[in-house]
Specification:
This protein is α+β, with helices and mostly antiparallel strands. It has helices at about 5-10, 25-35, 40-45, 80-95, 130, 170-180, 190-200, 210-225, 230-245, 250-270, 275-285, and strands at about 100-110, 115-125, 205, 210, 305-310, 315-320, 330, 335-340, 350-355, 360. A three-stranded antiparallel β-sheet has the order 5-6-7, with no helix packed on it. A three-stranded antiparallel β-sheet has the order 8-9-10, with no helix packed on it. The chain has a two-stranded antiparallel ribbon with strand order 1-2.
């Protein structure tokens, strides 16, 4: 996008800031935008205001302000660039708009003691929505006029049988947004960090999965050197780097503190270096998928053993070591998991599945623990 900066007629696009600078002439930009078909009405409406003050977001970028149109009339934009330019302009206009007013209605329906709740919302005053155009997407759910204690007739009953679903996997773009939200890394380093994790075999897939190797690296470091994995420590140094840039603290103080932290972590790592090496070597060996893979129990169809395998699509499953002679398989969840121990009822391996709350289950479909009473 940088190479098309001049063609798009906007400010520097390499920014994460949501703050428009005070030094620019908003009125002049709006006067220029009023000459462009499609933005005339909105620009003139804003120009009629006595005071122009943008509604800024929270994010700041010391190096660059939020992206905004320069006011120059663009020439011969491609359809794709035209859409980007339209989004930038309408976002700029909307920041000066009046608040929108939305009405939310909640209805409680009492069916013989069972309470059913339905919610609806509608826009009373469009405000900045009218300036943002098609990018302001709000659903309108209208209810008919109802009175308290009014009795309603049941026209139709729909029965839905559903299961709770695990959270969606991260994609490269969503994990970078999560890193930004947690203040981990910078704009320049987040993509590089993610790329390194993929190259080292810790992650794979567009819908990101942690590989057994990656999971074992985390488990090993958490066991012997947990501070290496500390989000809090990483976030602290990232924040202090920003404070150095803004002149709030001295670089010497941060460097000295960093030295002490690194010496402490290095000492802890050195004391457990042999143990860490052995566990990681064992992990690497077991994840290479040879016939020497760890047995998870006896195959339920033949005399082979059950082992962890990976499909051609990247997902994991449990299969027989006698494949292709024996094609017995056990499905595994798509969410993050690890082989965690042995079942105390049947002796097969157990897996721990990581969701909002981790839970452990036996891999054996015939395990007595799974029989309904």
């Amino acid at each position: 996008m940088r190479q098309n900066c001049n063609r798009l007629q906007d400010s520097n696009p390499r920014t994460s800031s949501q703050q428009l600078p005070d030094g620019i002439n908003y009125r002049e930009i709006l006067e220029n935008l009023a000459r462009i078909r499609g933005y005339t009405e909105g620009s003139k409406m804003l120009l009629s205001k006595k005071k122009l003050k943008p509604h800024n977001g929270r994010k700041k970028d010391p190096a660059h302000p939020a992206i905004y149109p320069t006011g120059e009339v663009p020439k011969k934009l491609s359809p794709r660039h035209e859409k980007i330019y339209d989004l930038i302009v309408r976002r700029f206009l909307a920041t000066f708009g009046d608040p929108s007013v939305r009405e939310t209605v909640t209805i409680e329906l009492n069916n013989e003691g069972e309470i059913f709740i339905s919610k609806g919302a509608r826009t009373i005053e469009k405000g900045w929505h009218s300036l943002y155009g098609k990018y302001a997407k709000f659903e309108e759910h209208m209810f008919p006029d109802l009175n308290k204690d009014e009795k309603l007739s049941v026209e139709k009953i729909n029965l839905h049988e559903k299961e709770t679903q695990p959270p969606r996997r991260y994609t490269p773009s969503s994990i970078i947004r999560e890193m930004e939200k947690r203040n981990l890394g910078t704009k320049a380093t987040r993509s590089q960090i993610l790329d390194t994790l993929f190259k080292r075999g810790y992650l794979h897939g567009e819908s990101i999965e942690v590989t057994p190797l990656g999971l074992n690296v985390v488990d090993t470091l958490d066991k012997y050197c947990p501070e290496v994995l500390s989000e809090k420590l990483t976030r602290k140094f990232e924040r202090e780097m920003e404070q150095i840039e803004s002149g709030k603290i001295s670089p010497e103080r941060v460097i000295e503190e960093g030295k002490k932290t690194i010496i402490h972590i290095s000492k802890e790592f050195s004391e457990n270096e042999e143990k860490i090496g052995k566990e990681l070597a064992s992990s690497l060996k077991s994840t290479r998928g040879s016939g020497k893979a760890e047995s998870l129990g006896k195959c339920l169809k033949c005399d082979g053993k059950l082992v962890l395998r990976k499909s051609k699509f990247g997902s994991h499953f449990i299969g027989c070591s006698n494949y292709p002679t024996c094609r017995f398989t056990i499905s595994l969840p798509k969410s993050r998991f690890k082989i965690s121990g042995k079942c105390n009822q049947c002796g097969y391996s157990t897996i721990t599945i990581f969701g909002k709350k981790p839970w452990t289950v036996c891999i054996n479909p015939d395990c007595p623990s799974k029989k309904k009473t």
